[in-house]
Each structure stands twice: as C-alpha cells, then as structure tokens.
Amino acid sequence: MTFAAPLGLLALLAIPAIVAIHLLRRRFPVRPIAGLFLWQAAHDVPDGGRRIDKLPWTTSLLLECLAALALALIVSGATLAPSASSEHLVVLLDDSVSMTAIDSRGESPRARVVARVRDEINRIGPRGRITLVRSGERPALIAGPAAFGAEAESALAAWMPLARQHSLAAGLRLSRELAGDSGSLLILSDRQSDGTTERIVPGEIWAAAGIPLANIGIVDAHRSVNADTKQGALSLTVRNYSDAPAKRVLRVTVVGRPFKGANGASDTEILVRNVDVPAGTSSISIPLPAATPPVRASLSDDALVSDNAVVMVEPQPQIVAVDDRLKDGRGKAALEKAIGALAGVIPGSPGHLAFLDSSDVASGSSRTNGANLASGFSGTNGPPAPGVWQARFGRPAPPLAGDGTPEDFIGPFVLEKRHPLLQGVTLGGVVWTGVFPLSPGAVHPLASGGDRALIGTLAPTATAADPTFLFNLDLERTNLIRSPDWPILISNLVEMRRRELPGPERWNYRVGEWVRIRFDSQPARPLHLRMGTFERDLPGTRLVEFVAPAPGGLAKILEGDQLRYEIGINPLDESEGDLRRARTESIGKFDDARRERAIESGAAFDPIFWLLLAVCTAAMFCNWWLLSPRRVPARRSHSEGGRA
Amino acid sequence: MQPGIDWAAVQAAAAWRLVVPRTPMRGRVGERLGAGTGSSLEFQDHRPYVPGDDLRHVDWKAFARSEVLSIRLYREEIAPRIDLVIDRSRSMVATELKQRAYGELVALLASASTSMSADTRLVTSAAAPPIPLHRPDEVQRFLDCDATSGAMEELGLQLRRQSMRVAVSDFLFPHDPDTIVGRLARDGASLAIIQLTTRDEAEPDVEGGRRLVDVEGRGELDVTIDARTVAEYRARFNRLRQGLSRAARRTGATFVHLMAGATPRQVARVLADAGILEPR
Question: Which CATH entry fits the domain spanning B7-20+80-279: 3.30.230, 3.40.1000, 3.40.50, 1.10.287?
Fold first, then answer.
C-alpha cells in the first residue's frame, strides 16, 4: 500500500485518542429504574472521569476506531497500486480528409493513426488517462479530458476525418493547454509539421503516418444556365497530382429523383465517358439541358475518394423587377441605360425596386415627422406595394426638407465606404447639384457634402418597413449620370435588393462556407437540414445561416416535411487532394519526468478510496445506531439495582 | 402461571371482596341495590295506583286509612360493575420483586371482584377493548408488561358509567394528579387508586455513582446518588404521592400506597384498612 499524502497518517492519532476516551471515561453501574424524571433534577455528573479501569472492548469502541482508521487512510491517499502516478497523454488527431486516402495495401493514415493510439492506450495502462483532440479551425475534444482508455477507444472508432485543409496550430494550442505540466502531447497526422505555426517543442512527438500517393480530384465546379438558349452546363476543374497523364471514367447522374433524359427514357444516368486527365490542371465541360435536377459528377475511384465527386444544383436566377417612375428627362434615360446593362433585371410593377421623384411623395399626411416619410406616396401610379424598395431623387418633400436654398457641391464628399450601396463609388469629378437642406435627423446619411446629406436612408416604420434611399440630387443638372460612379451606384442598389430576395444566396457551396438562405416570411414550421443520413435543425428565422457541413452532398432545406430548397455542398479542396506531400516519420520524444508526474485525479479514482469511504460511513452509522437513546433495551435486568 | 406469584396466598385471600359504595349504582339485575326502582325488599317510595300495576304491590293498609289506592315501590337489585384499570407499562416489572407484587395485587383484586358476582372488566389501554373477567386466574394473561406507557396516561379509557373503579399503577411518570384522578373518577360510582412501588423507588438509599436507565426508554442519566440527591428525590416522590392523595380526596376516591414485598394477606389487610376491601 502506498500513500499519496503520508502526512495524512497523522490522523491515525485519533485512534489512541478514542481509546483514551473510552479508558478514562467514568462508567457507572447501570441501574434500570422507573420514573427517571424524578432523578433528572439531580446534579449531572461530568462525562470525564478520574479512574482508569480495564479497557472495555465494546462494539462502540471498535466501530469508532475503525471509522478513524478509514478516515486516516482516506486523508493519506492510500492506494493499493504500486505508484499513485498515472500518465496523461493528449493526442492531437489531424482531422483533414486526406487522412482517409487509401494506399496500395488498402490502408489509410487514419487506420495507422488509430492503431498508434491503441498502442499508446495499452502502454499507459488502465490507470493512464488519455485526451483526444480533433484538429480543425475550431478544434474539439472527442474523448476526455483525461478519459479512460475504454472511452477513448469508443471515441476513436467513431472518428472519421472529413475536414478541409487547415493548420494544426489551433489544435496544438488547445492540446498544450489540456496537457498542462503533467501531460504528454502526441500529434498524429499524415504530413510533416510546417515548421512555423505547427512547430513542436521538446517533450512532444509529431508522428506522421502518411504515404505519398498519386491522386486525381475535382478541385472546382460550376453549373450555369444560359437564359437565352435555355442550355445549361457543368464545368469541372480536375487536378492530376502526378507527373503522368491518367484515364478516368466520368459519370454524371441525377441525384435524388427520377429524370427523363433526352432519349425520353426515365434514367438517372446522364453521361458516362472516359476522360484523359493530363498532369496538372484541366477542365471538363458537360452540356446539360435546362431544368435538369441536381446532378452528381464523379470520377472513378483512386487514392482519395472524397474529392472524386461533386453534387451540383442548377442555380435559379434571382430576377429583380424594377419599377421606373422617374419623370422623363436626362435622369430617366440615364437610369434606363444603367439598368439595361445589368443582368437579371426586368421592368415590372410594383416590382422589387422603385425609382421615384421625391416630389411625387406625399407631404407626410400620415407621418409625425420627416424621418417617417417612407410610404407617404401619392404618385400618379399609386403607392408601392409592400416589399418594394424605394430610391427617391430630387427635392425632398417639406417635412424632410429644411429651410434654405439648394446648393451644388463639387467635393469633397464624405462617403460611408462600408455601406454596400457605396462600394466602388468615389464621386471623383462629380458635381452634385440641387442639394436641399434636410431636417435634422430626417435621414441617416450615407454620403455628405459640407453639412448636407447627399444620400441617406429613411428609418423604417411599422407601416413602411422596406428600405428607402433618398438621393438629394437634381438629376437634370448633375454630371453624376455621365460619370463611372452612376452605373456602379445603380448596380449596387439592384444587387442589394437581389440579395434580399427569397432563396439561397448561392446554390452550390464548398464545405465550410457560410450558407445563407432567406425566406419570404417567417417559417411556420421547424426548419431542418437533411443531407443523406445527416440531419440537423436550423433556426426558424427569415434569414438562415449555417456552415456547410462535411462531407457534403445534396443538402435539402425542409420546412416541416415540405422541401423548400436544395443546395449542393462539395469538398473542392485543392490542398487536401495533393497526397504527394504525405510522409511517414516521427519527430520528438516524450519527457520522461513529465510522464511520471501524477495527474490531479487523485485517490478519488481509486476503488480503495470508495471502499474506505463505505467502511467509514457504515462504522459511523452503526455506532450512532448502537448509541441511539431510542435503542434502550426493553428489559436489561430485573435484578434489584442491576449492575452492568 | 405467572412466575413468582404466590397463587396459594392469593387463593387464601379470596375471603375478601370489594367494598360496595353506599351511593346507588348502575348494573345488571343482581343482588346489590341499584339506583332505580326494582323488586328488592327495600322500600323506596309510594305512588298512586294506575291501571295495570301489580296488585300485589298495592298498599292495602294505606288504602284502609285513606281509601286511596297507592303502590309501594322498592329499590332494584343489581350486580355491580367493576372496572379494574391496570398499568401494563415496563415500569411495573422493573424488578422481579415489583413484578411479583404487581401480579399478586392484580390477582387479589380480581379475586375480590369475581367473588361478589360482579360484572368485572379489565381495562388495560384506551386502544384495547376491556376484557371481561370471570375467574381470578384469567388475569395472568395480562401481567406481561411491555408497553412504553401505562393506561393511566391515556385519554379515552373505556370505563362504564356508575361503575366501581380500581386503578393500579406506580404513577412514576410525569403527570398532573388532578387530571388523572378526575379522568378515572368521572361518571363512576367509586374509585380506588392503588400506587405500587418498590422501597427503592419510594425511599432510595445512598448508592454512589449510577447510570440510571429508564426502563420505558425515556433516557438515561449518570448521577451520583449521595445523601443530598436522595433527600431531593424523596421529597419529589412524596410530593407526587401527596398530590395523588389530595386529588383522590377531592373526588371522593380512595388512595393507598403499597410497597412491594408484602404478602397477599398483608396487602389485603392494608386495602381493607383503606376501605377498598371488606371481609366477605
């Protein structure tokens, strides 16, 4: 038996103390009586005594000594093991997908890493503790901290590396924090350390279990539709990570639903053909009919399977309908010209975006101040419907306009560059004409000249929640419409509106990218993301954002049981496909002094601790029960003046 | 047979019976005068004759004097009711001496009750129904005292109206004598209270240090029994006994204190002196 805290054995002094108490305590002969209450006014005798009698080996004495012994052993950290120290090993696992590459023997770096961890678990023994950290942009624990070997084994079996290429630096920092002063750190990867952010320190081991392999992978993919020709296309960028050309079979299939092909037969397979892939980067373009459902393009298997296939969804163009209500003149012509140059824009009423003359806006009959003038519209064509953004030009209506005469500005202009409306806008050489003074606080200025707001936004109200932009500008006299900033400004405005249309921001994503999907109204039922067997809940808001999860595939966005959108998520990781940099080597050495240091789990993890605690508790309980006043024997002795 | 009880001595003391009170009582038809009208030989009153009355009870002499028919009324004859209330707490058997004395006293009272054709019942607790007693030896089944409290401490004892009551206990428990005696005497024809203690309980001697353990589980106490402690104890015990005696006097009951150790014959004599027993 060993002791973690030998000084705790001083608690054994309690045993002679207990014996002394029992030895010196006054012990009167017992006399059963009736009517104790008649005696209780008599003077009680102090518990202490003066005479030493033969020590009575009573049950109470034995139980008290047993409890004291057990407590002393607990305090001293007694354990039956030869040493109280146990090794704490922290293992950082490279979670990049290249760990799943299969070599000619059918083995992967993952399998070799798992075998290595199991060897380490056997080496540190049953008392050892292990912590498994999965690397990544946000490293995470998959076992521990300081887990038993069995827990680590089960976590290890479920571990499947799927992450994109990333640095192990963040994982190293977390692992070192977990290891502290007493733990050892083992980094398991399929490649070498980069020598900078991933540099190891003495006492750590970097073990690489990779084997250089040739590989061909799809590193980029696009799917498009020509609105004029109604012809779609799938473009693949293929990378051959070797010095020799190779042949592969390219297969394109429809994912998730039956599809009637060009020959009229219902078939999910659209294309199968042999492709020659030269060394380096090459492209493959595949024509697809418009409205083809999501397709899966895959190359025949090689070392790394995960980069051989992509799932691509046909993008649905988001058309912005523009309602041009400007009065005829230079400004209207310039606006039509700028809009005509933009793709995905059609005229429409009420549309998504309305260009108005400020003079057509009512003078605020339903407004309490100038800042709330967003919907006071009295144009000849009627007020814009809900969901219509407004861009107003010209002299603002009276509550908005302050007192003063219009002025022209040639600069300098102060622009809020971070606002998407003004990205790329410089207003260099622009003469901003007809600037009226505005009421204080009427607008939130985005561009200013002197003390006047040139462009501003009106605060949304309960009845006019859609954004309204106020251009304090006389379009007929300004040279802005002839400057390069004019089409940029209009384009920014249209693209801002386009981004706010319902639907996914894009239709195909890489793993790890942020996916943004906007709904036209608050979802009535819970939202789910389903991708094969993977499923998770999504926040039930109008704008849903989440990180595209690995390993990718066709992701379905469901509102309740109703399919709302389908998006494609693909690995498309050029760095991870390059298996030529994989290595098998081991750098570093564990610090023996650190390995022998005890972890702080202490004796509480030792079964002997719980045994002692149980003995102590049982002894104290039995002693209390024995000495309980309720347990006075019914008849001790019927002899007159009975003696103990 | 209860060990230690001298049943021969008890049988020898069977010549005693309980003293029947002079006040009228209630009971079944028997040989003792009751409170109501009956058919005994003791004249009680006259009343006018009404049709249906027994012609044998017409007072013809009075008719001759007054020419009015009247009926002679006589006292009823009853068998007295006796409720024997006994304390079955552990304190009654705290020592063998007290246990024997208690058994002999209860047997003596049972013998005195059953010998007078009385309707005798043994009351042991409020929860248990009273036990009819026909022979003296039937009491031995109820002398095994193992309760933590006695019948005297309980409320709601099932005592009969106008019954003769005899209560046996050591009364060594905290109590208010007026309350206990009043409870026992309420609606009774008579009440006799017999306190039975050992000499050590009444007049302890100086013994030195002792651990006193209450046999009814009411705690234990380390105490040095010296002259001062003994004096204080005796004073408290006397106050307890006098309190019972005073309470008995207030309710017209009879109180007697017995010391364990006397023979049944001696006990019977003491009870006779106190007016509880009388020769048959």
Answer: 3.40.50
